[in-house]
Amino acid sequence: MLDGFVPWPETFATRYRECGYWTGRTLGSLLRERAGTHPEAVALIDRDRRWTYRELDQRADCLATGLQRLGLAPGDRVVVQLPNTAEFVQLIFALFRLGAVPVMTLPAQRHVEIEHLITLSGAAAYVIPDAHFGFDHRTLARAMKDRAPSLRHVLVVGDAQEFTALQTLETEPEPLHGPEPADVALLLLSGGTTGAPKLIPRTHDDYFYNAAASAQVSGLNPLTRYLVALPAAHNFPLACPGILGTLHAGGTLVMCPDPSPDTAFPLIARDRVTVTALVPPLAQLWLEATQWLDDDLSSLQLLQVGGSRLKAETARRVGPELGCSLQQVFGMAEGLLNYTRLDDDEELVLHTQGRPLAEDDEVRVVDTEGRDVPEGETGELLVRGPYTLRGYYRAAEHNATAFTPDGFLRSGDLVRRLPTGHLVVEGRLKDVINRGGEKVPVEELENHLLSHPAVLDVAVVGLPDASLGERTCACVIARGQTPTHSELIAHLGAHGLAAYKFPDETRVLASLPRTVLGKVDKTALIRDAAS
Ligand code: OOB
């Protein structure tokens, strides 16, 4: 078992197996099953490349053997930072089959995040594109080689320069020992905890269920064509049902390099896409774009929206303007997924964020003392279940407070539960700004801002925003010279922070309001900023 992984207690593991959640299959076998029954069906389309299930299956095997020859072993962590391409899908299946553990990072992440994730995971390898949207990932890899002693290999899709080209590793497949179903299959990034970003271990057993049950609840089948529009490494497009759910259902993936309507709409029209997943600001943008783009979107049957709260007004427009059904998804990389069901009343689909995927998702809604609130009242969502983690990876200290003594995750989300079991997300307790689905860890950003010489003190708050839901505002107390917004952004960029974490605006104040206990009064800051 991977060191630093917290397993489910044996009584729970037994129950989850007996109840059929954990079927003892690995993610590598998910692809193998379909390649056996439907070898000639198209598994994925990436621009002009079309790979059948047979081809994807074989390519995953060839690469898995190549990675083993390179010296990677079961349990080794591999930081994966690839855009939405065929190689991403091939690589993750190669790693699943080898039993090496992908650490799923986003293409937008930079030195700060990647160094932290390589160091925390003790990664042996780092896989990058040569360049993506004008950024040369090899420069980032060079810096990582200097700073992260665990890193033995940098593998590049494209022009590898001094590193190893990923495609050159493919070789005649040899039998692999492979992982056990209870082993950690991958490490996902947490969007939601305080302090430094955390890693979420997901096992083959639990993630297989996550993908297969999601595929069922979203009605996927062999005719499904799923557009991978959000970054593939995020839990939502990866397995809710996303890439893994689509392949489990025998459907086809359509890889989309970026989720803008200009890129996505022509792909939907050309490849007859039936389903995709978006965050609310993108859903809103797609709705607007139907006014000026005339691509044929008539193949689209289902739009999933999640990641942050979708406004009912936007939800209501999806059917009439995009001509497809809407499914709200309230999920978290930690596990728990809530979906509105395809046969739910319109009221529920428009106004709730869905209900739990599994019968055995134990959801509690509690007050600040940890007592269950009366039905229909708002409180913090606690969860325990067959695909919700029991501990963040290598984070014993954090785990001591992030979970109740009986193993419920404290989600930090404030929800209200309806008699139907559907949840409405009302807010949050955790100190994270949800910038339209992208999670900005407040403490991390504050620390980076504090390292600027002209910043004496800072408080970062989320302000209401019509399209993002929330935008990031840095309230700064200057030291001597007043820093400008662009100076602060340049400082964060030079530090190597991902751009989605940059503040949208900076306000320079004379002092920060404090509570009686001396803590920064963020409620007052938000109120003042709004008035
Ligand atoms: C998804 O996963 P993460 O890990 O990036 O972020 C999880 C957090 C939740 O705890 C909640 O605070 C927020 O994002 N959230 C929503 C939401 N979906 C997620 N808040 C309001 N309404 C929603 N529909 O964001 C994620 C993972 C899998 C599927 C979908 C989203």
UniProtKB/TrEMBL annotation:
<feature type="domain" description="AMP-dependent synthetase/ligase">
    <location>
        <begin position="32"/>
        <end position="393"/>
    </location>
</feature>
<dbReference type="GO" id="GO:0005524">
    <property type="term" value="F:ATP binding"/>
</dbReference>
<protein>
    <submittedName>
        <fullName>Triostin synthetase I</fullName>
    </submittedName>
</protein>
<dbReference type="InterPro" id="IPR025110">
    <property type="entry name" value="AMP-bd_C"/>
</dbReference>
<dbReference type="InterPro" id="IPR050237">
    <property type="entry name" value="ATP-dep_AMP-bd_enzyme"/>
</dbReference>
<keyword id="KW-0547">Nucleotide-binding</keyword>
<dbReference type="GO" id="GO:0016878">
    <property type="term" value="F:acid-thiol ligase activity"/>
</dbReference>
<keyword id="KW-0436">Ligase</keyword>
<dbReference type="Pfam" id="PF13193">
    <property type="entry name" value="AMP-binding_C"/>
</dbReference>
<keyword id="KW-0067">ATP-binding</keyword>
<dbReference type="InterPro" id="IPR045851">
    <property type="entry name" value="AMP-bd_C_sf"/>
</dbReference>
<dbReference type="Pfam" id="PF00501">
    <property type="entry name" value="AMP-binding"/>
</dbReference>
<feature type="domain" description="AMP-binding enzyme C-terminal">
    <location>
        <begin position="444"/>
        <end position="519"/>
    </location>
</feature>
<dbReference type="InterPro" id="IPR020845">
    <property type="entry name" value="AMP-binding_CS"/>
</dbReference>
<dbReference type="InterPro" id="IPR000873">
    <property type="entry name" value="AMP-dep_synth/lig_dom"/>
</dbReference>
